Amino acid sequence: MKSSYNSHVKRIILGLVIFAVVGFIGKEISSPKSFGVYGHYRADAIQEEADRDMRHKTNTPCLPCHTHEAGLHKNGLHKTISCEFCHGPMADHITSGIKTGELPVKKGEEIRVLCLRCHNRAIHARPGDVIKTVVMPDHLRDKKVKETHTCNQCHHVHAPYNYIDQAKQALSIKEAS
Amino acid sequence: MDREKPELNEERRTFIKKVLKGTIAGSLLLVIPLRADDLETSEQIPEHIPEQIPGIRGSEYDMSRHRFVFIVDITRCIGCGSCCVADKREYNVPDGNYRTWVERYIKDIDENIYVDCPNGGLDGYQKPREDIDRPVRDTFFVPKLCNMCEDPSCVQVCPVGATFRSPDGFVLIDSERCIGCAYCIQACPYSVRFLNPVTHTAEKCSWCYHRVRRGLLPVCVHVCPAKARKFGDLNDKESEVYKILSGPGVITVLKRDMGNSPSLYYKGARREVI
Amino acid sequence: MNAAHENAITILTNYVFPNDLHVHWSMMIALYPYITGIVAGAFIVSSLYHVFGVKSLKPISRFSLLFALAFLTCATLPLLFHLGRPERNFNIMLTPNPSSAMAGFGYIYMLYGVVLLLEVLFIYRPTLVYLRKKSQGLMEMIYRALTFDSTNLSPESLELDRKIISFLAAIGIPMACVLHGYVGFIFGGIKANPTWATPLMPVIFLLSACVSGVAGIILVYILIKTFTNKPADTDCVRTCTNYLAGFFILDFVFEMLEVLSHSYLRTAHYHAVDELLNGPLYNSFWIGQVGILSVIPLILLGWLCLTRVNDTLFKIGASLVSFMLLLQVVFMRWNVVIGGQLISKSARGFTVFHPEWFDKEGILTAIVLMCAPLVVLFVISRIFPFWMEEMDEG
Ligand code: SF4
Ligand code: SF4
């Protein structure tokens, strides 16, 4: 084939134009649909994020089954505590009305660690009007119990003063002032 | 701060027995038969969960009508780390990455500041710091999370538009489009972002957008026993956040000079808080 | 009280934000500006001949273009290794975010690639036409494609080529500067990082790009010539070394200016930057980048350029300086990219970075990626002859 003086240039330009057009069409086709509705992003992503599954479902769904704990919890000082913080998220327990897993119940030493997360006075910065704190093991000594006692031997975990008040009543101990 | 009223019913006898036996661990052994209708109410149907943020459920959600803010009250935080635990569980955050964390600040009498945050506060703070030899003047906890900047650097730099600010003011990540370049992680002045080692896309605190849209509080706010975290709609004049922000308290934002205009406010934050 | 408070800021308690412990931009991101830098630098060398008419650079004018091309083909590899989701890399072309400094990369890179490739093809057209006639089979097909199936070498046609070459070379210079200055801006545009956020960043990157490009060309040119037992053109090497000296002096001045202005302005971030450079980066910055790899080459360059050094010694000296400066730029990229990330945004401490050998972004990958352009260069040399002399002999 005889080529004219500028045939290569023409072919290059043609090639570049085809490349640009194909590229542009490809870009239009493969850009996501809802892109740019509100801004430079995929608008559907908002709804997708809103539809994410909740794993924590507040205390409400716990109470109908666990009525005993519910009764204690809602009247006790620990009523602001979330069930799911100590026991784990609802989603690991019930899915679509079916029990799918056991949630852990803390025992023994775990209880002490759990309680002291909040109630340890050795960690300063725990304002008295927010939370009641104790120093361990001084608190056990003060109360004249064994130093091996775990917190829940005196304080019900769901209602910390429940037993103490009951005991005082039962034994007719008058509150000092 | 009222104590629960002692109920002297038949439980009392069992109680005394247990006290006499020296154990009360048995109190959890009460077996309660599960009923089918109870199970249904415990399922995830948000309508069964009482609304926590008024004005979201019911009518069509209008993104332009809300202006959400988050307030952290440093004077109330007790550093228990409930928020961190809940957050990790809500999103199955892989170990070593943190959508939210709680820092401990310690100030000694020479005004030196020591900050630490073991495991992001997930284990709480069980022990006082032992490596400080000067007398300590002050200790406080500072929870951190996404600032939901009005002028977010992360959105500015994301090359593909995978991180964006929605019309209702949430900075969110489109994990379908994120290429995992980590540019946003470099750009965020607050270091709240990380690359999820499982999905290899960027991730950060979303102020629990999925809960807010269901009329519920972000999970960290919900579990905070000390009410140190507060969340609400500034356009709702009845909301606690509106009252706090329009009240006289000392309110700051972090790194104001970055110019990001955060929607996360700190109540009682001292100047050392970065 | 005031003194005490001052003290409070300077004491770094090594508190690092929990998400800052991990260095997200590791060796791949240090390598990427290194490779694009070499591209930009090598292109500028060829432009010195093609646009500015520096005649003594003629022997390497073609070679430096191919050198740039070889590195350009590999410039995206480190990025792909770095991305969390490399299969989505085209998103950056599909929905580039206009406000992002990084978003332009895809288009700038592509345009620059086209310009560079076209320039090579036009410059080589007479050669390729000639080679096409001489070869057969697969090579014939390749040359036919590369000449766009045109064999017209009439004076008219060559005159058209000449105009196009000047045009491409002319727009190539600003594009090379954009390509690399822009890489600097990717870092310079991050206000959250006090070591990066300086308007000097693009300038420093551009100048160090020129340094690494020129140094790379000098070194590889001398090496190839030595191994093929051909004499390297002394005049050309001397000119290159002069340019290298010029670029490097500017580069070094700006690098120092940045540190100087940090320490003079003493802004709130100064303490963090100061402790970074004198702490974790002390060895790689002051001793490596500045002491050994900048001051010594400066002295050597002064000796080479200002005194009469005989040819053999000059070539040895030039190779040595080039090698040191190539390393200097590696150190500089490392100190900026990785060093910059060691400062936690808490401004209270530093994290540490441990390069892994077999990581996806590890040392081994880095070595392989640094060798890749040289392999590409070898492949290219089978198609495009580097040196004019070879043509003349043919
Ligand atoms: S805090 Fe960081 S991640 Fe959150 S909006 Fe601001 S810049 Fe983005
Ligand atoms: S990591 Fe994802 S969200 Fe972040 S800048 Fe890159 S693409 Fe955008």
What would your notes on this structure say?
The complex is a heterotrimer of chains A (177), B (274) and C (394). By secondary structure, chain A is an all-alpha fold. Chain A folds into three domains: 8-51, no CATH class; 54-104, Helix Hairpins; 106-177, no CATH class. Chain A contains seven helices and two strands. Chain A has a two-stranded antiparallel ribbon. In chain A, a hairpin with a 2-residue loop joins β1 (94-95) and β2. Chain B is α+β, with helices and mostly antiparallel strands and 274 residues long. Chain B folds into two domains: 4-48, no CATH class; 50-274, Alpha-Beta Plaits (2-Layer Sandwich), CATH 3.30.70. Chain B contains eight helices and eleven strands. Chain B has helices at 10-21, 36-41, 82-91, 153-157, 183-187, 209-212, 219-223, 240-246, and strands at residues 68-73, 101-108, 113-116, 136-144, 163-165, 171-173, 194-195, 202-203, 229-233, 251-252, 264-267. In chain B, a hairpin with a 5-residue loop joins β5 (163-165) and β6 (171-173). Chain C is mainly alpha-helical. Chain C folds into two domains: 26-188 and 356-389; 214-353. Chain C is built from 15 helices and no strands. Chain C has helices spanning 2-10, 27-50, 58-74, 77-82, 91-94, 105-134, 138-146, 155-188, 200-227, 234-265, 270-278, 282-306, 311-342, 363-383, 388-393. Chain C starts with a helix and ends with a helix. The chains are: A mainly alpha (177), B alpha+beta (274), C mainly alpha (394). At the A-B interface, α2, α3, β2, α5 and α7 of A face α1, α2, α3, β4 and β5 of B. One iron/sulfur cluster (SF4) binds next to α5 of chain B. Residues 157-158, 160, 162-163, 173, 178-184, 201-202 of chain B line the site of one iron/sulfur cluster.
